[in-house]
Amino acid sequence: MTAQPLGGRELAARIRARVTELAGARRAGGRAPRLVIVTATDDEASAWYVRSLASAAGKVGIDCDVADLGPLATAGDITARLTALSQDDAVDGVMLQTPLPAGLALAEVSGAIDPAKDVDGANPLSLGRLAVGRPAYAPATAAAVVALLDEYAVDLAGARAVVVGRSAVVGKPLAHLLLDRDATVTVCHSRTRDLAAVTSTADVLVAAVGRTHLITPEHVRAGAVVVDVGTNPTPDGGLAGDVDPAVASVASALTPVPGGVGPVTTALLLQNVVD
Ligand SMILES: NC(=O)C1=CN([C@@H]2O[C@H](COP(=O)(O)OP(=O)(O)OC[C@H]3O[C@@H](n4cnc5c(N)ncnc54)[C@H](OP(=O)(O)O)[C@@H]3O)[C@@H](O)[C@H]2O)C=CC1
Ligand SMILES: Nc1nc(=O)c2c([nH]1)NC[C@@H]1CN(c3ccc(C(=O)N[C@@H](CCC(=O)O)C(=O)O)cc3)C=[N+]21
């Protein structure tokens, strides 16, 4: 078997086309939508995303600023900036990049993002609403995984879904989105015993770990649908997923990296800004 590639570029282009129209209408009506990305890390994957998001925003007609507070920023520095942006009437969307400076948890500072401007769903209030099935803005990556599965008509109702990774940005919110779609959800993490035994039960397996090629064929049930969220920089300047390409010989469908979840994430984040 060789897995069907579940590419995200076409879906992303369709979403961006809609966003471009909406942003154009707002611009014509007086002011273009404005996104501010706050970053406090020198993580490479994060820096790449910031540049790529800023460039994608420009192309769809969203004004975008980057507030780089540097990897030494304190919780106080970050909350002060998030609070100021939340109060600024010229700003529609505020996004805080992860990872944060060592020792700082997202939930410690993301409460300072006004839920009305919380375009990556990071505020504990936004996450709480997601957990009770009344989402405001869902984290773009988690939403992108479900959008991609919908795009390829993967049936989630009653399916056994296993998510590897429990971050507040991907794994946890995704577990809630999948539950809302009536999947039976298991979440794995670094303390999970016998990871392969758990992941092998999945009809739909999602890897959001940040470890190059952690998921090998022995982790995957024959015919499973596999979604690779990982975007790990390689020494040669490329990008590798969390899923070993050899999984394509076992899975029925697999998202590519690059060109899978990533482009959809960016498009949905921009959609949240115009919304
Ligand atoms: N394509 C896209 O749109 C996006 C891609 N990403 C990428 O996805 C990846 C994950 O991102 P993010 O969630 O922010 O990462 P985090 O580092 O915040 O979380 C990683 C999770 O993986 C778990 N984990 C680590 N090692 C193992 C292991 N050996 N076995 C099982 N679980 C493990 C951790 O467990 P524990 O909690 O126990 O530490 C943690 O829950 C990264 O590569 C990131 O760049 C992220 C966002 C968007
Ligand atoms: N609060 C927060 N939310 C995030 O969503 C978030 C974050 N912090 N921190 C950093 C990670 C990383 N991330 C990526 C998103 C898209 C691509 C993407 O579009 N990648 C292209 C790669 C293109 C290439 O380099 O060749 C692709 O997959 O096709 C990559 C990485 C979001 N993140």
UniProtKB/TrEMBL annotation:
Residues that, per the record, bind NADP(+): G165, R166, S167, T231
Any GO BP annotation: methionine biosynthetic process
Reported function: Catalyzes the oxidation of 5,10-methylenetetrahydrofolate to 5,10-methenyltetrahydrofolate and then the hydrolysis of 5,10-methenyltetrahydrofolate to 10-formyltetrahydrofolate.
Entry EC number(s): 1.5.1.5, 3.5.4.9
Native source organism of the sequence: Jiangella mangrovi
Domain of life: Bacteria
Domain Tetrahydrofolate dehydrogenase/cyclohydrolase NAD(P)-binding positions: 139-274
Cell inner membrane listed as a keyword: no
Gene3D superfamilies: Leucine Dehydrogenase, chain A, domain 1, NAD(P)-binding Rossmann-like Domain
Protein name listed in UniProt: Bifunctional protein FolD
Signal sequence interval, chain numbering: none
Keywords, comma-separated and alphabetical: Amino-acid biosynthesis, Histidine biosynthesis, Hydrolase, Methionine biosynthesis, Multifunctional enzyme, NADP, One-carbon metabolism, Oxidoreductase, Purine biosynthesis
Pathway(s) per entry: One-carbon metabolism; tetrahydrofolate interconversion
Family: Belongs to the tetrahydrofolate dehydrogenase/cyclohydrolase family.
One GO location term (cellular component): cytosol
Catalysed reaction equations from the record: (6R)-5,10-methenyltetrahydrofolate + H2O = (6R)-10-formyltetrahydrofolate + H(+); (6R)-5,10-methylene-5,6,7,8-tetrahydrofolate + NADP(+) = (6R)-5,10-methenyltetrahydrofolate + NADPH
Domain Tetrahydrofolate dehydrogenase/cyclohydrolase catalytic: 7-120
GO molecular function annotation: methenyltetrahydrofolate cyclohydrolase activity; methylenetetrahydrofolate dehydrogenase (NADP+) activity
Subunit text: Homodimer.
